[in-house]
Amino acid sequence: MTDKEIMNKSFFLYHGDITDTSNLNRLLEKIQPDEIYNLAAQSHVKVSFEVPEYTAEVDAIGTLRFLDAIRETGIKTKFYQASTSELYGKVQEVPQKETTPFYPRSPYGVAKIYGYWIVVNYREAYNLYACNGILFNHESPRRGETFVTRKITRAVAAIKKGKQESITLGNLDSKRDWGFAPEYCEGMWMMMQKETPEDYVLATGETHTVKEFTELSFKAVGIDIEWEGKEENEKGKDKKTGKVLVSVDPTYYRPTEVDLLIGDATKAKVNLGWEPKIKFEELVSIMVKADLEVM
Description:
It is a single chain. By secondary structure, the protein is of the alpha/beta class. It has helices at residues 3-7, 21-31, 45-50, 52-73, 107-126, 148-160, 181-192, 210-219, 266-272, 280-294; strands at 35-38, 78-84, 129-135, 138-139, 167-169, 175-176, 179-180, 200-202, 208-209, 225-228, 235-238, 244-248. Helix 2 (21-31) packs across helix 4 (52-73) and helix 4 packs parallel to helix 5. The longest helix has 22 residues, at 52-73.
């Protein structure tokens, strides 16, 4: 779709830069949005160890710039901050909910904690309508190709099509609470329709390993995986042919791992009427099918 085609409809694109205060002020004064969803971020946890300063500039100070632009311009709007389950990091409670103490384990998580608290502070100090959505991992066929879930589904599709021999991954035992992104986007919108802004966890309440995600991805294309070895020596083989399709490379490990994330979205269910519908196996199948179609 071209810009001209878009501009002929009720959808308009503007160039914005969350690292530029004057740009944000100008756009807010021009557009006067009813709702703002701040999804801007350097959101790759592993990359945040390589570019920690940039991650802080965008994820932490960028959020402050947005909030201060709202305050300075005086526009009447609602602000949603895309927070993250990475706030919990080295978890202090299982499952994690809105009141669980934070313990981030990456520059990304630390930057997002600043974003979380500056939202709370501006809400209380300046009476802004601002809320945090603490979203656990949410996936779809649109997930970036450098993220582990999409890396897996693309590789499995390529292996099935004979375009790739195998896939190399990091920590197979990491546990995450994975949900379907469109449902989480609906939850974000539901938060913003409440009369009073509050912070909410969105999660499925189930946890699965990277290994499980990998197994189900191969299962979706008719390949059964069996495992042998441990840690960096672990390999996943095609049960039928014995061919090694999955191997581990420690260079993909994070300097500080987050071993287990599982969320409790009870507050969202009670206050918003939100709850996830797409189950884990169906989510994996949706992503693999989409990658098979475009491969």
